[in-house]
Amino acid sequence: MDDATENVDEANQNKEKDVIEANEEEENPFASKKRNHATVRKDYFSAYDIEKKKVKDLLKHIDKVSVTTDLWKSGQQVSYMVITAHFMDSNWNLQKCTLNFCDVPSPHTGVVICDVLMLKDNLAYKNSLALNGKLFHVKCCAHILKLLVQDGLSEIEDIIFNDVSSLYQQRDPTYTFLPSEEDCEKVKEVCSFLEEFNKVTKVISSTEYPTSNLFLAELYNIKKLLNEAHENVGYMQAMVSKMKKKFDKFLGDCNLLISIAAVLDPRNKMKLVEWCFPEIYSTSDAIEQMTIVQETLRMLYNEYFEAHRAKNVDTKISGAENQREGSSCIVSGKRKVRGRAQFYSYIRNVDNIIEQVKSKLEVCLEDGCHICEDDEKFDALEWWKMNNMKYRVL
Questions:
Q1: What confidence tens digit (pLDDT) does each residue in 245-257 have?
Q2: Which pLDDT score, from 0 to 100, does residue 325 have?
Q3: Cα distance between residue 301 and residue 297, in whole Å
Q4: In the chain, fewer beta carbons within 10 Å around the N or the C end?
Q5: Given the DSSP bridges, would you call strands 334-337 and 66-73 parallel, antiparallel or unpaired?
Q6: What domains can be seen in the chain, in order of their start residue?
Q7: Could you give the CA distance from residue 40 to residue 307 in angstroms, rounded to a whole number?
Q8: Quick check: 110 and 71 in contact, CB under 8 A?
Q9: What angle do CA 145, 296, 224 make, to 5 degrees?
Q10: Contact between 183 and 163 (Cβ < 8 Å)
Q11: Which residues 6+ apart lie within 8 Å of 135 measured at CB?
Q12: What is the three-class DSSP state of 127?
């Protein structure tokens, strides 16, 4: 009897153990103590297929995405490129997901990166690019700032070397070459000058909230700093001149997407462009660049407006037919349209004429800027979510 009881207890324990292991396997199908190369490889591809399906389901109902590329070099000096899609979900939350992680051969020129990406031609073929790709490529502002600082520091290497020499003496008492007090003061002044670049880089490199609407104001601060420093004659003039030249090279032509993002921030609108451009460009160029921004914004709005109208045309036709049916009566066996249906037809025609005379874009820009008491807590996407019904296309 005891033997039978022991056998039953042992069988129950084994059964319970099997259930626990099955549950663990269900929760984490890739967790196992014994794995060979083939099993691990299979699990990796299985995980990849699962994540790929999640991304496809996530993007299934998304009309537009922004794509960013980041280059990364491994410890084995192999270069990779991460391709990330950024978009807003139905609740107006900023989302992102990795689309690809691919090897990029040297040299990392624009042509090589474009060949690896193979995105623009595919999207252009499907007519998916806004303004035929006019806004497709945007230079990385953080990278441009890095190039500016590197070029500037190359002009004062001797001063930097003198300052570093003091650190050498702390490690080696026999090292006698020390910087002068004048060199120390120069280094402090350079660090103070470059502090603004550090602050701007942190602002535009954040990933916790949308930052494209903040770029223009930060670039204005940088250009103003360079213009003011360039007027001063001294040891930093060569450094500032080189940085200013690099700024004009990469950001001299109007960066349309940065400008449009700034305009669509309700705190800015065109007023920020009108305020920043005279500092960034010459007087004549500023007027020309502002005109380009306004015209591009108008064309972009019209493109979205046509897409919005085409998307809702079936709904409007169906609704109009229902209205006509509901606003009619039977007279001598025939259906006759009553005044209400005729009035609806008149309203639709009048609304189309008003839209042609003054678009929602113009109405929005004329409404004035949104004055925010606490800019740090302001959420541009939340504002557009609240005003979605007022500015459907925008």
A1: 888 888 766 678 8
A2: 46
A3: 6
A4: N
A5: unpaired
A6: 62-128 (3.10.450), 141-289 (no CATH), 302-386 (no CATH)
A7: 47
A8: no
A9: 30
A10: yes
A11: 129, 256, 257, 260, 300
A12: coil
In the chain, the amino acid numbered 84 is: T
Decide if 66 contacts 45 (C-beta within 8 A): no
**Residue 262 and residue 266: Cα distance in Å, rounded?**
9
**Distance (Å) of CA 391 to CA 23, 300, 305, 308, 359:** 51, 15, 11, 12, 10
Cα 327 from Cα 345, distance rounded (Å):
12
Please give the single-letter amino acid code of residue 133: G
**Residue 335 has what pLDDT?**
45
Which parts of the chain sit beneath pLDDT 50?
1-2, 4-8, 19, 22, 32, 125, 323-338, 354
* CB contact set of 151 (below 8 Å; sequence gap of 6+): 242, 243, 246
In the chain, which residue ranges form alpha helices assigned H by DSSP?
A: 2-27, 37-59, 110-117, 120-125, 141-153, 157-171, 181-204, 215-230, 237-251, 256-263, 269-280, 283-311, 313-326, 339-357, 360-366, 380-386
Contact (Cβ atoms closer than 8 angstroms) between residue 365 and residue 269: yes
How many residues are listed for the chain in this entry? 394
As given in the structure block, the two tokens for residue 198 are: 């550090």
How far CA 195 is from CA of 144, 191, 244, in Å, comes to: 16, 6, 16
Q: Which residues contact 254 (CB under 8 A, 6 or more apart)?
A: 289, 292, 293
Neighbours of 380 (CB within 10 A): 20
CB 85 within 8 A of CB 54: no
